[in-house]
Amino acid sequence: MKKVLFLSILLVGCQSVSPVTPVGKDTYMVGANSRGGFTSDAEVTALSLKRATEWCEGLGKQMELVNSTNSGTQGWTPQQSQVTFRCVPK
């Protein structure tokens, strides 16, 4: 059982999303990290985009992507995604 749990943690890894940070008028930045496991760049970016969408919806607005960057290598080094976005009227 311990071996299965260890392998599950290894494959899933650890994921986190940073707090949303204002960087201009109605413009924000958020990042996500994945350490260990085999999370794809798309999955790490999706974590950032989900948080950005939730943030804007909380303001009664719609998320508009400004820029997205990724770094790291799947299964080898920690993966990071940084998203810059605006909250615009619906």
* Number of strand elements: 5
Largest sheet descriptor: 5 strands, antiparallel
Helix-strand sequence? HEEEHEE
Q: Given the structure, what is the number of helices?
A: 2
Task: Name the shape in a single word.
Answer: elongated
Name its key features.
90 residues, alpha+beta, 5 strands, 32% helix
Structure in words:
Strands 1, 2, 3, 4 and 5 form a five-stranded antiparallel sheet that branches. This protein starts with a helix and ends with a strand. The chain is an alpha+beta fold. The chain has one domain (about 1-90). Helices cover about 30% and strands about 40% of the residues. Strand 2 (about 20-25) and strand 3 form a beta hairpin. The radius of gyration is 15 Å and the shape is elongated. It contains two helices and five strands, in the order H-E-E-E-H-E-E. The longest helix has 18 residues, at about 40-60. The protein has helices at about 1-10, 40-60; strands spanning about 15, 20-25, 25-35, 60-70, 80-90.
TL;DR?
The chain has 90 residues and is α+β, with helices and mostly antiparallel strands. Helices cover 32% and strands 41% of the residues.
What's the arrangement of secondary structure elements?
Layout: H1 2-12, E1 14-17, E2 21-24, E3 27-35, H2 41-58, E4 62-71, E5 79-88
Antiparallel strand pairs: 1-3, 2-3, 3-5, 4-5
